[in-house]
Amino acid sequence: MVRKKVANHQKAAHAASTLERIRRVRAGERLAGAYRAFGAAYRLLDPALPAPTVTRSGFRDFVHPKENRFCTVRELARLQSFPDQYVFEGRRCDTYAKSRYIQQTQHEQLGNAVPPRLAQSIARAIRKQLLRNGRNVVTSNTIEYFKQIFADLDYAYPQRSLGNKRNPLDELVYIVLSRRTQEGQYQHAYRELHRLCRPWHKLLSTGDPALREVLEPLGLVNQRISALRATFTTIVADFGTLTLSPLRRKTYSEAYHYLRSLPGVNDKTAKCVMMYSLGMPALPVDTHTFRVATRLGLVPEGTSLYKAPRVLDAVVPRSLRGRFHVLTVLHGREVCTQKNPACHRCPVKLRCPSATATIHTRGPS
User: Fold this and answer.
1) In terms of Cα–Cα distance, which of 236, 233, 309 is closest to 266?
2) How far apart are CA 116 and CA 293, in angstroms?
3) CA-based R_g, the chain, Å
4) How far apart are the C-alpha atoms of 191 and 195, rounded to whole Å?
């Protein structure tokens, strides 16, 4: 068996002045005298002490304890308990609108990352708080209730396609067009855009007037065009061609964070691509899923759309997430609508607290 090549292991070539400072640094001491300005940037790693914390200070941080050089990214990653197969690559993915697409150095990514063993310890502490006598007192009743709800909805709505795409790039475009738009409008716009820009790389060279003519009925035309172009340009820069097929070889976490790093791709869009096109157990939470889950009591009252995905991930088994999303979309469109829901013909009305209250107070509408 051939061992997978370890990434991020490259040793940097140091200038003569850098090597001089490295030779002068001592364990537990900072550079002084003429070199004191570099005191915070040069720290000799002491193998006799516990592994230190690697930060994203902008410095290389640690000098190798036995060689006159800085530690490689892989060596620092090992100190932080990252396995050798973990590769540091990609862009930022945070809440800063202007900086989230900036390419980070591998050292910055390592310094920003939470060490796996630390994350595991925190997760165990949280789990301990949630569990009592081996049972999850927070969600055990909810999970049983979910099974009943799911069975009723699954029976009421036979397998139906929502028009989603098996190709991840097609699906990405489809979902970008679907946001804040009615079903018939975005499906028609997708067909027209696909006809105009087939293959998709033609969109990068198609003029704004032609694109606006197709997307005008959807609204937010400039934002959609800008998002698609920026996303396509980024994908080409990352993979050398306009394709998302390499994500099929990624883990769930890798695929999710890559998609979220793309311009204009939110949590729901990323998870739709993962669920419909990559076959991953993602649960997209759109307005229909959020509304239905809240009315059914699967999501506590007052939970925001931003926090709802984490709540539902704890309730819905991985194997049922895709189907549950489809069911809630169908149910939200046909029965559990935003205004005047048809509770009297709801397949889960006898279990739904919202339907029970509505029927008792209003009667069938």
Assistant:
1) 309
2) 32
3) 26
4) 6
What's the start-to-end Cα distance of the chain, in Å?
A: 67
The identity of residue 151, as a single letter, is: A
Query: What CATH number was assigned to the domain covering residues 7-125?
Result: 3.90.120.10
| pTM value surpassing 0.70 | no
Cα 270 to Cα 108: distance, rounded to the nearest angstrom:
24
**359 vs 144, higher pLDDT:** 144
What CA–CA distance (Å, rounded) separates 20 from 42? Answer: 11
Task: To the nearest 10°, report the CA torsion of 93, 97, 98, 104.
Answer: -10
Distance between CA atoms of residues 349 and 336, nearest Å: 10
Q: Shortest CA distance to 242 belongs to which of 183, 286, 283, 198? A: 198
Closest listed residue to residue 270, CA positions, set 176, 160, 189: 176
Count of residues making up the chain: 365
Residue 77 identity (one-letter amino acid): A
Core vs surface per residue 318-328: b (16+ CB within 10 A) or e? eebbbbbbbbb
CATH class assigned to 168-277? mainly alpha
Q: What are phi and psi of 319, to 5 degrees?
A: -70, -15
The secondary structure element, H or E, covering residue 131 is strand 131-132
SS3 81: coil
Virtual CA dihedral for 250, 255, 257, 263, nearest 10 degrees? Answer: 130
Measuring CA to CA, how many Å separate 196 from each of 203, 209, 211, 230, 254? 8, 12, 8, 18, 32
Q: Are 346 and 335 in contact (CB under 8 A)?
A: yes
| Residue 347 contacts residue 152 (beta carbons within 8 Å) | yes
Give the residue-averaged pLDDT of 36-45: 84
Averaged pLDDT for residues 229-234: 94
Query: Pick from 260, 324, 317, 265: which is nearest to 289 by CA?
Result: 324
342: DSSP letter:
-
Q: Are 327 and 146 in contact (CB under 8 A)?
A: no
Position 18 pLDDT exceeds 60: yes
- Domain ranges, ordered by start, for the chain: 7-125, 168-277
